[in-house]
Amino acid sequence: MKMSFRAKRLERQNHRLAQASKLNLVALMDIFTILVFFLMVNQSEVKVLQSNKDISLPRSLSQQLPTEKVMLTITANGVLVQGKPIWQGDWQQDSSLWLPELTQALTDELNYLAQRAGPLPEPQQQVGRAMTILGDAATPYALLRQLMAICAATEYRDLSLAVEAASPAAVSEAP
Q1: How far, in Å, are 15, 18, 115 from residue 7 at the CA level?
Q2: Which of 24, 75, 108, 129 has the fewest CB atoms nearer than 10 Å to its CB?
Q3: Measured on CA atoms in the order 127, 131, 137, 138, is the torsion positive or negative?
Q4: Could you tell me where the beta strands, DSSP code E, fall in the chain?
């Protein structure tokens, strides 16, 4: 019996589709090779801290890389702990208006974080808990000193100030 053109086409198509498909591993290996090289090239020793558009970090020649610690961020209009706003206000006002409120809020938050972290081991009790302070370059030193005193009173005595790494020439040119 003679087959029609359509029947022949359907038979060829069924025969072609019945064959097991083959996986092209060459293209897959190329993609993974490129991915591995990309990850190796972009792996670096630079630690990136939480960024905040409101802060312009001071420049320094610091050689020490940051580690994971509690982050205290001081912006132009407030204080954040671990990215959570704990106080908002104006630094330009008389400090007797905002300092007690800020002290209480910061103390409560740091005590809560210390309680969650558990008790300090015996060797670390002298040094205290670790904290990194991110403050704008325009933050007054008196305010920074007050905040550091509050932190020290709540077991956070191992304080680090976050800075933007710069070349020696850039630091000497800065005002």
Answers
A1: 12, 16, 78
A2: 24
A3: negative
A4: 59-60, 70-75, 78-81, 84-88, 130-135, 158-161, 164-165
Q: Which residues contact 156 (CB under 8 A, 6 or more apart)?
A: 70, 110, 114, 128, 129, 130, 131
Between β-strands 164-165 and 130-135, what pairing exists: parallel, antiparallel or unpaired? unpaired
Task: Reduce the DSSP state of residue 90 to 3 states and report it.
Answer: coil
- Residue 56 Cα distances to 1, 49, 140, 160, angstroms: 86, 13, 13, 16
Whole-prediction pTM: 0.58
Q: How far apart are CA 74 and CA 79, in angstroms?
A: 5
In order, the DSSP letters of 17-28 are HHSPP---HHHH
Question: Dmax over Cα atoms in the chain, in whole Å?
Answer: 105
- Please give the structure tokens belonging to residue 77: 């209009």
Model confidence pLDDT, tens digit, residues 22-69:
777 777 888 889 989 888 887 765 555 555 666 666 666 656 655 567
Report, in angstroms and rounded to the nearest whole number, the Rg of the chain calculated over CA atoms: 30
Number of separate helices (H) and strands (E) present in the chain: 5, 7
132-141 confidence digits (pLDDT tens): 888 877 788 8
d(CA 140, CA 124): 30
